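Action item from last week, closing it out:
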Amino acid sequence: MAGKFLESTAPAATFSATRDIRITVLGSGTSAGIPTITCDCAVCHSTDPRDNRLRPSVLLEYNGRKVLIDTTPDFRQQALRHNIRSLDAILYTHAHADHIMGLDDVRPFNFHRAEPIPVYASADTLARIQLAFKYAFKYEGKPAGPVPKLEGHILNGEPFDLFGLTVQPIPLPHGRDVTFGYRVANVAYLTDHSEIPEASLKLLEGLDVLFLDALRHRPHPTHSTVATSLDASIRLKPKQTVFTHMSHDLGHEETQHTLPEGVTLAYDGMVIDTPLRGFRVFTSLEDALPFFSPAGVSIGNFDGVHTGHQSLFRRLVALCHERGWKPSVLTFDPHPARILVPDRAPRLLTSLAERLQLFRQCGIEQVLVLPFNEDLRHLEATQFVERIVAPLGTRAVIVGDNFRFGHKLSGNTETLRALAPRYGYESLAGGAITYRGQTVSSSNVRGALYDGKVSKAARMLGRCYSIQGTVVTGHGVGSKQTVPTLNLAPTSELPPADGVYVTRATDLDDNRSWAAITNIGTRPTFENGSDRSIETFLLDSFDGRNPVHLKLTFLGRLRDEQKFEDAAALKTQIFHDVKRASALHRRVSTLIIRNEKGN
């Protein structure tokens, strides 16, 4: 009988639900599945169970949670076959039928949980799923019958936390479409891609397990071939590469013999267990306790993650590597000032997601994000150390020399030092970093931005400042009378002061990037109102769809915003701005090329 299912051969006894990640291949085939209806080829009639391939999907298990990637039309069969008893989240790569049409079969999982199952996808993918399965997302009170209950979350290419691990969406071209692959800690799953762009390759370094699309040997307009995926594996050097989404052109046994060591074909029922490595995020003390120890910990808000914070983290990481500890951060959300003095709370330089990404880039391995609430605000300094710092298995605490903590900010570095012998940690304090005689601090970075001094802010941050937002419809004046622009509704809290800036615009959904200039202000040539707008003119050629989620990186300031006599005078000034901005972009590009050659 062709196509017998191959049972899992995983060493289940060795799997730790808290320290390992398990990947179960639910399906490794193409959109038609194998055997394919009406096909008489040798693979479709093979007696090797590894040649029986359902539509492509995997189940991830870690930290006691189950995360599904795609709900194929075969999902009911896959769930029964692997005795999946619960489901905590679904990640979608894209909205093609072979990746979403089993969604209705998640309904039994809702019978055993009160809250909806979170679903993560790009804006376009989620919109298509919600169109096809509207009843699963829009429900009021008790539904008329047993239906899935799902909660949609739009992804824009930025990393996010999911049950203690950072999930990094990987934008991938799929012919003319864009799909998402996903990196979860030290594992990445990429299916349905025709190539891997350079920016996405950089997100895939240092992996233990990498799944790649490998449809067949012959070229295909929307899928990777065996040879192309082998080239990607050689470049990325994961410990193990697994090819999936395979057509009936590839017989398992004969193809496997041609692959180098460390590269294998997936098969339905394949299970891979690998120890969790890399960046982890915890949002409660209870979740963190089993994993945190032994830890070197830095405590603070770290808004902006500026050069002062980075200096502290370098010292922390070096100490932890020397002692065999985990470099860790204890931070808070929301910012304590939002609770303590809401009327005077600062506008933040970075969102929590941005801070987490910057922590990771600094070599931090784990972060505990504590909700700053009434219980936490009333902890005395000694109680904070006793109930939070010590139970984490903290071996060293490294903070800035102006660090304050505890109820009414009663604790400081001297308090930490005095408590250290009792609770078994070393207490270390870092000195301030200065720039041109001024202390580098989050407040001083904000001050530079309020003054429009983005170059000064960049020196303090150790990188160019950036904001993010959604592209919205403007007034239409620019496209008719001056030059067409992209109008940004910022989600970032602190755009720089009004003025004209040299910027870099990046599409957060697919990593396309353009040299640009950006005007922030009230458009005084056309309006007398006070509504602030952020308008960006792209200097590079623009192809493809309009960006939806945009990041603007500020490279320099050109001038103040001005009121001109008419649109023609403004247009003349814009072209002058373009020349100056283009020259700066050329200088920046030359510096980047020289730096890359030097490395």
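Closing note: Residues 12-237+248-275 form a domain with the Metallo-beta-lactamase; Chain A fold (CATH 3.60.15.10).
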